[in-house]
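Hi, here's the filled form for the chain we discussed.

Project: internal
Contact: R.S.
Residues: 208
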Amino acid sequence: MSRARRSRTEANPRRQILLLKTAIWAIGVTPVVWLAVAFFQRDLGVNPVEKIIHIQGRWTLVFLLAAMAVTPIRRLTGWNRIIQVRRLVGLFAFFHACVHFLAYAGMEQLFALQYIVADVVDRRYITAGFAGLVLMIPLAVTSTRGWIRRLGKRWQKLHRLAYVAAGLGVLHYFWKVKGDTFWPLLAAVTLAGLFAVRLVYRRKSRRR
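And the returned structure, exactly as it came back:
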């Protein structure tokens, strides 16, 4: 293979990853920008704060489940380079979770610590959501290559907490909604499917 052809072959997958990361950035930033513009233009209905909290919570689950789907997609398709976008997707999940919590704590509770603590203790859906956010903090902090090298095999064990965080997020969503449970149930089915794929590949690896 000539040097020019080889460079084009190597550049094509890099371009695919670059385009994919660009799309992830666009999808990750757009909801926050849209909500900010709609809020200041008063286009979010009679309860804009609740709508912001709800939309940001849904995007948190979308990105968290998407981050967990990267490895199954890689195994099912053989496209190994997709692993390069997992950190970015996971960080957007954490970003939306933080915006979700800050909208609740700042816009709804006005950072009144005593009311926030009371909600976390007394209201089960807030307890589950807050626990999920806390679990996402070490995942975001240790997502860098430096932490992956430091932790070694322990890094994979630590990042299994993503399943726990996602499960708590689904519970938080399900307990929060009153009548329409379609989206939280869809998230629960998606999470169960991702977990099933993980178990299947773990059993195969043990047999090998």
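Let me know if anything looks off before we file it.
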